[in-house]
UniProtKB/TrEMBL annotation:
<keyword id="KW-0472">Membrane</keyword>
<protein>
    <submittedName>
        <fullName>Uncharacterized protein</fullName>
    </submittedName>
</protein>
<dbReference type="InterPro" id="IPR035908">
    <property type="entry name" value="F0_ATP_A_sf"/>
</dbReference>
<keyword id="KW-1133">Transmembrane helix</keyword>
<keyword id="KW-0066">ATP synthesis</keyword>
<dbReference type="GO" id="GO:0045259">
    <property type="term" value="C:proton-transporting ATP synthase complex"/>
</dbReference>
<keyword id="KW-0813">Transport</keyword>
<keyword id="KW-0406">Ion transport</keyword>
<comment type="similarity">
    <text>Belongs to the ATPase A chain family.</text>
</comment>
<keyword id="KW-0138">CF(0)</keyword>
<dbReference type="GO" id="GO:0015078">
    <property type="term" value="F:proton transmembrane transporter activity"/>
</dbReference>
<dbReference type="Pfam" id="PF00119">
    <property type="entry name" value="ATP-synt_A"/>
</dbReference>
<dbReference type="GO" id="GO:0015986">
    <property type="term" value="P:proton motive force-driven ATP synthesis"/>
</dbReference>
<dbReference type="InterPro" id="IPR000568">
    <property type="entry name" value="ATP_synth_F0_asu"/>
</dbReference>
<dbReference type="InterPro" id="IPR045082">
    <property type="entry name" value="ATP_syn_F0_a_bact/chloroplast"/>
</dbReference>
<keyword id="KW-0812">Transmembrane</keyword>
<keyword id="KW-0375">Hydrogen ion transport</keyword>
């Protein structure tokens, strides 16, 4: 879906291009204020971490996991598990 939104960038951006440019600019500015002028190589890593945590937390909040009854709770938000939290902290 990202490739569809920005595969042909326009001078006057479309809705999808606007959204992805906004997200990229937010992550780039966040990296620049926290790291300094050498932020360039860190933008993909920080962006990936930010989007993973954001989507994981929202999937836990928006999807009704309790409606789907599975024996071992296979469907849960990734950040609900302590192992995910520890792995992200170690990175």
């Amino acid at each position: 879906s990202v490739l569809i939104a920005v595969r042909n960038p326009q001078t006057i951006p479309t809705d999808g291009q606007n959204f992805f440019e906004y997200i990229l600019e937010f992550i780039r500015d966040l990296s620049k204020t926290q790291i300094g002028e050498e932020y360039g190589p860190w933008v993909p890593f920080i962006g990936t971490m930010f989007l993973f945590i954001f989507v994981s937390n929202w999937s836990g909040a928006l999807l009704p996991w309790k409606i789907i009854e599975l024996p071992h709770g296979e469907l849960a938000a990734p950040t609900n598990d302590i192992n995910t939290t520890v792995a992200l902290a170690l990175l």
